[in-house]
Amino acid sequence: xxxxxxxxxxxxxxxxxxxxxxxxxxxxxxxxxxxxxxxxxxxxxxxxxxxxxxxxxxxxxxxxxxxxxxxxxxxxxxxxxxxxxxxxxxxxxxxxx
Length: 97
Description:
The protein has a 4-stranded antiparallel beta sheet. A two-stranded antiparallel ribbon has the order 4-5. It has a single domain, classed as RRM (RNA recognition motif) domain (Alpha-Beta Plaits, 2-Layer Sandwich), CATH 3.30.70.330. The radius of gyration is 15 Å and the shape is globular. It is 31% helix and 36% strand. By secondary structure, the chain is an alpha+beta fold. One of the early assembly proteins it binds 23S rRNA. One of the proteins that surrounds the polypeptide exit tunnel on the outside of the ribosome. Forms the main docking site for trigger factor binding to the ribosome.
């Protein structure tokens, strides 16, 4: 059985994710590749004690990566979850991490 911390791997703290959090009350996370939307919703509700409106997921495709001269490979693919929450003020994830 997966725990809530196995489902949510880490928060994504990019400029776009922080602006989206301030404007639309959305949180962005890297999640387990096999996690469903309902599992992500329950995990976020338990961790942050908020009510979740909707969960959108997408798989970020691997990008090419170089390892020195002529050797190349790819970064790993990962799953991103964008979670819209019902709250009056935005949640500051940077303070919680």
